[in-house]
């Protein structure tokens, strides 16, 4: 087995509307560490990801973003409220399941 001595892994998340998506992840509490016109680096609880101005319908429809939280019911309520504000019309969230 190869030991890469890796210290970080950063997925690239697509966006159909880059500015709206960047604002959404900020509203979720993700810290924007860096951004330019096509790429934004976010940090959430020590995990980082890139949001990119890139969209392929088939790829997006097969992508999910999983975040583990302490209180799933409370988080669902907060995100539902954010969606109901109308600021992020294309966002979907599913209720927590056991």
Task: Summarize the helices and strands and which ones pair or pack.
Elements (H helix, E strand, L loop, with lengths): L11 E3 L3 H10 L3 E5 L3 E6 L2 E6 L4 H5 L10 H13 L14
CATH class: Alpha Beta
Tell me the CATH topology.
Answer: 2,3-Dihydroxybiphenyl 1,2-Dioxygenase, domain 1
In terms of per-residue confidence, which ranges show pLDDT below 50 for 5 or more consecutive residues?
A: none
Specify Rg, calculated over alpha carbons.
15 Å
Q: Note the total helix count.
A: 3
Our estimate of the beta-strand percent is 15-25%
The counted number of beta strands is 4
Distance between the termini: 36 Å
Structural class by sheet pairing and helices: alpha+beta
Helix content: 25-40%
Mean pLDDT comes to 93
CATH architectural type: Roll
- SSE string, helices as H and strands as E: EHEEEHH
Shape estimate: globular
Cross-sheet strand order for the largest sheet = 1-4-3-2
CATH homologous superfamily classification: 2,3-Dihydroxybiphenyl 1,2-Dioxygenase, domain 1
Count of all domains: 1
The biggest sheet, with number of strands, parallel, antiparallel or mixed sense and barrel status, is: 4 strands, mixed
Tell me what you see in this structure.
This protein is α+β, with helices and mostly antiparallel strands. It has one domain (12-84): Roll (2,3-Dihydroxybiphenyl 1,2-Dioxygenase, domain 1), CATH 3.10.180.10. It contains three helices and four strands; from the N terminus they run βαβββαα. It has a four-stranded mixed sheet with strand order 1-4-3-2, covered by helices on one side. A hairpin with a 3-residue loop joins β2 (31-35) and β3. The termini are far apart.
């Amino acid at each position: 087995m190869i030991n890469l001595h890796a210290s970080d892994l950063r997925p690239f998340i697509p966006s159909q509307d880059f500015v709206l998506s960047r604002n959404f992840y900020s509203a979720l509490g993700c810290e924007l560490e860096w951004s330019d016109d096509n790429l934004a680096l976010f940090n959430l609880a020590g995990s980082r990801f890139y949001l990119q101005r890139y969209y392929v319908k088939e790829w997006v429809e097969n992508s999910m973003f999983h975040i583990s939280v302490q209180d799933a019911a409370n988080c669902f309520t907060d995100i539902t409220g954010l969606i109901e504000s109308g600021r992020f019309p294309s966002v979907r969230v599913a209720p927590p399941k056991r």
